[in-house]
Amino acid sequence: MKHLILLFCLLPFFSHAQKILSLAECVELLSKNNLVYRQGNLQAQAAEANLRQTKSQALPQISIGSNNSVNLGRSIDQYTNAYIDQVYNYSSVGAGFQAPLFQGFKLQNQIRQGQLLKESALENRTAVLNEQTILLLQGYVNVLATKALYQSAEQQVASSQIQVDRVEKQVNAGTLGANTLFEIKAQLANDKFDQVTALNNYRTARLLLFQRINIQPDDQIELESLEQDLVKPETQDAVTLYENAQNVFPELQSAELYRKSFAYQVKSIKAGNYPSLTLGANFGAFYASTNKKLDYMKQLNATRNGSMNIGLNIPIMGRWVTRPRVEAAKVQELLAQNQLDVTKQQLRQAIELAVLNLNAATDRLAAAQGQAESLSAGFAVVESKLNAGIANIFEYSLAKANLARAQANAIQARYEFLMQNRLMQYYRQGNWAGIF
């Protein structure tokens, strides 16, 4: 009975237990729920379906059919080819076969183009996921940073509240004037305002992250902290990183494959200037009710017939449509080449910026840590003097504000370094393996 009562007492706690969400789990939710990535995935599926459709055009066409009719009035007897004027039934069955033998390698080039477009779409799908993952990483780190800033603001409020309580006792005892209490309460009010601002920033960052992974916002969800490795990685220049990235980054591979596909489109268009061969075959039989001597099956057996044919088509004048279509395809190829150059430029600039940001984040982290340590020691001295009555409230407020600013700088610098470090690791290896 005691265990049962304890279970009922703990049920509310279990129902409101916080859920921990890691960065890897956020990426998994991103791949399932993010609509931008879903669009890239659908485009890859469409490219694969188009390739299957193109391949199917190389297959032969086989068909069977049946026709049944009732003839009224004057008509031709299909069995005797004589004119008759009566009501009679006619039915036929048949099968047909048709296959392209040669079309100037049109289908082969279309299939090669479709294969490249499919591979390009698959690479683009990965590139879209990588792009969304970078935004997710930035949002995830921003949530952790704003949470740390909010916790720091809470500590500032608690510290000011302790001073308010202490001064209030001294005022009540008559050892301090009321003006000192008003000044310390003003400091507490400023700290509470900063706390509210930090809380709103934290809530906004959480909401943006939930929207990025497209899930319902939940206050019970907490994010798992990142490994705080504050050691700067091995220095590598942007030129070397970019040279290595050209062989592995999916956005470049996608743009390159897309550009190459137009060469096969040009070849498939030019195939319209070449002769084409088509193989065909037909088989059929029929039944006519005017023939009373043979039943249905015997008539089909007696009237069976078939044929085979090879068709040759030699284009002579095609309204000059091939040349402008080739020119249009070549322009599309130039546009694809320009898009490839733009993608390379964007990647190079992103790597250059990442190297610069990591170096800057490293310097900011070292400076912010030193600043926080110095001001923390200075604030401890001022606080002890205030408690001893040899420092005024202005000195205390100034030291406390400087310390709060230094602690906020240290928090922001630390999380900025964590993000830039992981981003640099991604640009170094071209994937997210081992980063989450």
The CATH architecture name of the largest domain reads Up-down Bundle
Strand order in the sheet with the most strands: 2-5-7-8
Topology order in helix (H) and strand (E) letters: HEHHEEEEHHEHHEHEHH
Overall tally of structural domains: 2
- Could you name the CATH homologous superfamily of the largest domain? Outer membrane efflux proteins (OEP)
The first-level CATH class name of the largest domain: Mainly Alpha
Polypeptide structure, described:
With 436 residues, the protein is an alpha+beta fold. A hairpin with a 6-residue loop joins strand 3 and strand 4. It has 2 domains: 319 residues, Outer membrane efflux proteins (OEP) (Up-down Bundle); 83 residues, Outer membrane efflux proteins (OEP), CATH 2.20.200. It has 10 helices and 8 strands. Helix 4 runs antiparallel to helix 5.
What keyword list fits this structure?
single chain; 436 residues; alpha+beta; Outer membrane efflux proteins (OEP); two-stranded parallel ribbon; 10 helices; 8 strands; 67% helix; elongated; disordered N terminus
Reconstruct the topology from this structure:
Layout: H1 2-15, E1 19-21, H2 23-33, H3 35-56, E2 61-71, E3 74-76, E4 83-85, E5 88-102, H4 106-173, H5 178-213, E6 221-223, H6 238-245, H7 250-270, E7 276-288, H8 296-302, E8 305-313, H9 322-388, H10 393-429
Parallel strand pairs: 1-6
Antiparallel strand pairs: 2-5, 3-4, 5-7, 7-8
Helix pairs in contact: 2-4, 3-4, 4-5, 4-7, 4-10, 6-9, 7-9, 9-10
Please summarize what this structure is.
By secondary structure, the protein is an alpha+beta fold. The protein is 67% helix and 14% strand.
